[in-house]
Amino acid sequence: MRILVTGGAGYIGSHTCVQLLEAGYEIVVADDLSNSSETAIHYIKGITGKEFPFYPVDLKDRERTEQLFELEPIDGVIHFAGYKAVGESVERPLMYYENNLVSTMNVLQAMRKRGIFHFVFSSSATVYGDPEILPIPEEAPLSATNPYGCTKLMNEQMLKDLYQSDNRWNITLLRYFNPIGGHPTGLLADNPNGIPNNLMPYIIRVYENKLDQLHVYGNDYPTPDGTGVRDYIHVIDLADGHVAALDRMKEPGVHIFNLGTGTGYSVLEVVRAFENVNKCRIPYVIDPRRAGDIAMCYADPSKAERELGWKARRSLEEMCKVVLI
Ligand code: UFG
Questions:
Q1: 149-175: pLDDT as tens digits
Q2: Burial group, residue 199, by CB count within 10 angstroms (0-12, 13-18, 19+)
Q3: Contact criterion met (CB below 8 Å) for 2 and 28
Q4: What pLDDT digit, counting tens, does each position of 49-90 carry?
Q5: Spatial CA neighbour of 146 closest among 207, 217, 85, 237
Q6: Separation of 223 CA from ligand 1 center, angstroms?
Q7: Under a CB-based contact definition with an 8 Å cutoff, are residues 245 and 308 in contact?
Q8: Is the shortest distance between the CB of 203 and ligand 1 below 6 Å?
Q9: Does ligand 1 come within 6 angstroms of the Cβ of 199?
Q10: Active-site positions?
Q11: How confident is the model at residue 176 (pLDDT cuts 50, 70, 90)?
Q12: pLDDT tens digits along 249-277
């Protein structure tokens, strides 16, 4: 099977490219490099020893998106491409709606034109809003608290409507919990530009002495130590979830899966695990809660195990280990 991976130079996309190539899939990568670098493409080729075409296209450009499908034989698409910073989405909602919705629509239109109906979408646990039930099952109520979350929810709805209109579509919605960690070679990692928003890249900057201390956002949540609890999952386990979805989901429909470990860890537990595994100290201060944050979020991942034969295997220690190159 030949898979178009959009956003394939990004953090989750690049790890998924490696796992797909190692599982025997052929890939074509499209990425506008707006939040990633072509170096990741070279590293994917270096790690796997395999070649594949790379297109630096902006999928908001409908003509160029269609051209890509004319040039390359493609059997299915994994659609990672999209903006993902919650705070930025609040400041620049139109940019988020345009980018995250128009690119999906263009890809789907191009697929329909060419009779390609196999689509895997990068969704997020953010679609559960502030969850009422823990661990969170796929049937939990959906809501969004910021424009980024809205784009995930709207894309999900668009895909459900599409299947209703034409039941040849085979759509998988993968709802990611909190991916962290990197490739064991040290070549692929979550390395955002500027000051990181997410916990693990921030901790790594403190570890590298590029930032002074971690700011822990709140220690007065109703959690065992008062800090926020999340379901951290190794990015390679997450990438393997995509391979499992392609291997197993052969029937048309809209298939929805949580990709998480099922275990929640607090911010302070992550800091301690990081310190132990990397033999270091991460200084931190307690700051007020961050606007929009929730106390706890962790998955019920049993459906993915049952139906995809997939389960996250890597420990928190493996997720925290820094590889020096
Ligand atoms: N945190 C800190 N200090 C920081 C950064 C984060 O204390 O500098 C805390 C947060 O308050 C939270 C936890 O660490 O309790 C995790 O925060 P992240 O920013 O790493 O992740 P979020 O859970 O807020 O959000 C992530 C993704 C979203 C996605 C969401 C799904 O960034 O894209 O998971 O649940 F929507």
A1: 999 999 999 999 999 999 999 999 999
A2: buried
A3: yes
A4: 999 999 999 999 999 999 999 999 999 999 999 999 999 999
A5: 85
A6: 15
A7: yes
A8: no
A9: yes
A10: 148
A11: very high
A12: 889 999 999 999 999 999 999 999 999 99
How many Cβ atoms are within 10 Å of 194's Cβ, its own excluded? 6
Place of tokens 């890597």: 314
Report the separation in Å between the CA atom of 52 and the middle of ligand 1, taken as the mean of its atom positions: 33
User: What predicted TM-score, i.e. pTM, was given to this entire model?
Assistant: 0.98
Q: At 124, is the secondary structure helix, strand, or coil? A: strand
Side-chain-side CA neighbours of residue 156 (13 Å): 23
The answer to whether 314 and 247 have CB atoms below 8 angstroms apart is: no
Q: Does residue 295 contact residue 230 with C-beta atoms inside 8 Å?
A: no
Which residue's structure tokens are 């790890």? Answer: 15
Mean per-residue pLDDT over the chain, rounded: 97
> How far, rounded to the nearest angstrom, does the alpha carbon of residue 223 sit from its chain's CA centroid?
25
Ligand 1: which of 143, 173, 198, 258 to mutate, most ligand atoms within 8 Å of CB?
Answer: 198
**Residue indicated by tokens 């100290």:** 281
CATH of domain 2-182+233-260: 3.40.50.720
Measured from the CB, is residue 126 less than 6 Å from ligand 1? yes
Alpha-helix residue ranges (DSSP H) falling in the chain: 11-22, 39-48, 62-71, 86-91, 93-97, 103-113, 147-165, 199-207, 235-248, 267-278, 302-308, 316-320
- Tokens representing residue 148 in the block: 């980024």
- The answer to whether 243 touches 25, Cβ cutoff 8 Å, is yes
Establish whether residue 298 lines the binding site of ligand 1, counting it when its CB lies within 6 angstroms of any ligand atom.
no
The letter for the amino acid at 163 is Y
Q: pLDDT tens digits, residue range 187-223?
A: 999 988 899 999 999 999 999 999 999 999 999 999 9
